[in-house]
Design goal:
about 300 residues, alpha+beta, three-stranded antiparallel β-sheet, 12 helices, elongated, binds zinc ion
């Protein structure tokens, strides 16, 4: 790994001392945030994520034919479910809304004519006996309790967003916005990062640091030496450390992301050296023009 770090300081004695002081502070910030992330990881998935996942699990994966029907009747549909599911989620179909017709399989048991009446019923296998039309509704056709949101980062990144973009470009990494990468928020291609348009500044900052982490760590030999779980743990740990260092409210978003990829505190600890190195390179670039880094958010 060889990253140019932007340093406008002159190299007289005072400047050296300042750089040293800044590096100490950066190392402290990184160490504190690593500790914080490890604590979160040890607690497991957050309540917010658990609520979100269990709500999302209520939405079916529809068959191709039904997806076509939903797309035809309501092209902007995002979350589609039947009345009963909506009610169980605390939402109700608004008056006058027309349902989207889909075909639901009818599962039944056909009993074979048999002379052993009692126990045989247990053995009759459920089977598809036909289809019927049922109606489903998109979330916009319903009202009531808000659906749980996945945990996300928030806060004000100020000028750090521009500094980060500068740093990405200094690394020779091209940056583009591309809505076709959805549902991914960002993708790292090696020499190029794509970001999903429409994220908040805080989310975009965090996504960009994550993808930059992949660019810095996973486009050379580590790509083949590491698993997806390790790569996502490393990239998201860097996003967490850098995000908190510039004052973002990261909540449980990073720990939850890492948990979803089956990462954990142990994996983070094993990767600590590269995580620290990449975080320091990014933070030094972001803080390069300041006497002292910003105090971290608590
Ligand atoms: Zn990633």
């Amino acid at each position: 790994m060889n990253f140019k770090s932007k340093d406008n300081r002159n190299s007289n004695g005072g400047g050296q001392k300042e750089i040293r002081r800044q590096q100490t502070t950066t190392q402290q910030i990184i160490a504190e945030n690593v500790k914080h992330l490890i604590e979160q990881l040890e607690q497991g998935k957050s309540e917010a994520l658990t609520a979100y996942l269990s709500a999302m699990a209520r939405f079916h994966n529809y068959s191709f034919g039904n997806i076509l029907s939903i797309a035809h009747h309501r092209p902007d549909a995002t979350h589609v479910a039947g009345i009963r599911t909506w009610n169980e989620l605390g939402r109700y179909v608004k008056k006058g809304q027309k349902g989207i017709p889909i075909l639901a399989p009818m599962i039944g048991t056909k009993r074979q004519p048999t002379e052993e009446p009692v126990e045989q019923t247990d053995k009759s296998k459920p089977m598809l006996i036909g289809f019927r039309v049922v109606y489903v509704f998109d979330v916009t056709q319903t009202e009531g309790t808000e659906l749980p949101e996945p945990p996300t980062v928030s806060g004000d990144v100020g000028t750090y967003h521009e500094r980060l973009v500068d740093f990405v470009q200094q690394q020779g990494v091209e940056l583009e916005y591309n809505e076709r990468i959805a549902p991914a928020q960002g993708v790292s291609y090696g020499g190029k990062i794509a970001l999903l348009p429409g994220q908040t500044k805080a989310e975009e900052f965090s996504t960009l640091v994550h993808e930059l982490g992949h660019e810095m760590l996973h486009k050379a030999e580590r790509r083949t030496l590491t698993t997806k779980t390790v790569r996502e743990t490393e990239a998201e740990s860097i996003a967490f450390i850098v995000g908190r260092a510039v004052g973002l409210n990261t909540g449980s978003a990073s720990a939850d992301y890492i948990s979803l990829y089956h990462g954990n505190a142990e994996l983070l600890t094993e990767s600590l050296a590269v995580i620290q190195q990449a975080s320091a390179a990014i933070l030094n670039a972001l803080f390069a023009e300041e006497a002292e880094p910003l105090a971290q958010a608590s």
